[in-house]
Amino acid sequence: MTASITRLNPPTMPDAAAAGYSQISIAEAGRIACISGQVAWTPDGSPVPAMLGGQAELVVRNAKAALAAIGATAKDLMIVRIYLVDLNETRLGELWPHIYDLFDGAQPSLTGIGVAALAGPDLQVEIEMTVRVPD
C-alpha cells in the first residue's frame, strides 16, 4: 500500500492552491529521498541552452528522470525548491509553465529563491526536491 501525502492550505494562510502549490505537505511514515538540485546539464554533455525556457525544459526533464529512478511521480513530491538567477516577475512567468509540467497537478510545497549565480556560469535555474519514496 502506498501512503499518501496530505496537502493543506489552511484558511488562516494565503491560498497557495490558487498558484499551484500547497502551504503544507504531510507525508505518512516511510522512506524519504532528497534529490540534488537539477540543472540544464545532459548525460551527453550537450551545451546549456542560452534561454531560460530551454533550460527549464531540461531541468524538468532531469527532475522527472530522478523521480522515475526511484519509482516516484509528481504526486510523491513533498517540497520543491527552485533557485532562479535574477528572479523577477517576467522570469517567473517564463518558468511557471515548466513548473506546472513538473507538478502535473500535484501541488507540493514550494520555495522559490532568487540567487546571484548557480554552479556553472551559464546556469539560470535549479530545482531540488524532497520526495516520499513509494512503497
Can you describe what's shown?
The chain has 135 residues and is of the alpha+beta class. It has helices at 52-69, 89-103; strands at 5-8, 24-27, 32-38, 77-85, 109-115, 125-132. A 4-stranded mixed sheet has the order 3-6-4-5. A two-stranded antiparallel sheet has the order 1-2. Strand 4 (77-85), helix 2 (89-103) and strand 5 (109-115) form a beta-alpha-beta unit. The chain starts with a strand and ends with a strand. One of its GO terms (molecular function) is deaminase activity. Pfam families: Ribonuc_L-PSP. This is Enamine deaminase RidA.
How much helical structure, as a percent, in the residues?
10-25%
Report Rg.
15 Å
Relevant CATH superfamily:
RutC-like
CATH-level-2 architecture: 2-Layer Sandwich
**Mean pLDDT, as a whole number?**
94
C-alpha geometry: globular
Q: How many runs of DSSP E, i.e. beta strands?
A: 6
CATH class: Alpha Beta
Segments where pLDDT lies below 50 for 5+ residues? none
**Lateral arrangement of strands in the main beta sheet:** 3-6-4-5
Alpha-beta classification: alpha+beta
Number of helical stretches of at least 4 residues: 2
